[in-house]
Amino acid sequence: MTLSDTQYLKNRKNDVRKERNKKLQRSDYTQLEDSPLSESKKAEWASYRQLLRDLPSLIIELNPDKSITFTWPQEPS
């Protein structure tokens, strides 16, 4: 991987982090003490949020076309 590829990957991961942070912020309410969700739903959301937090570290390389491959976790219903 060239230096430019390394920088490009870093930039792409930062883009994913920004979107991830938005998703985390939109779901913050699910973990509040006074959330209207049941304990089982809170647990589902906690698992989802952990997957979001782990996502950038799972992106470790660029594809040949300089894209990255990952899947956003499914938001609980």
Structure notes:
- By secondary structure, the chain is mainly alpha-helical.
- 57% of the residues lie in helices and 0% in strands.
- It is built from 2 helices and no strands.
- The protein has helices at residues 3-26, 39-58.
- Helix 1 (3-26) packs antiparallel against helix 2 (39-58).
- The longest helix has 24 residues, at 3-26.
Q: What is the count of β-strands?
A: 0
Q: Report the uncertain regions.
A: none
Distance between the termini: 40 Å
What's the tally of helices?
2
Helix proportion? 55-70%
Succession of helices and strands: HH
Mind telling me the C-alpha Rg?
15 Å
User: In this structure, how is the largest beta sheet organized?
Assistant: none
Give average pLDDT, whole number.
92
Core attributes:
57% helix; 77 residues; single chain; mainly alpha
Walk me through the topology.
Blueprint: H1 3-26, H2 39-58
Summarize the structure.
This protein has helices spanning 3-26, 39-58. By secondary structure, the protein is mainly α.
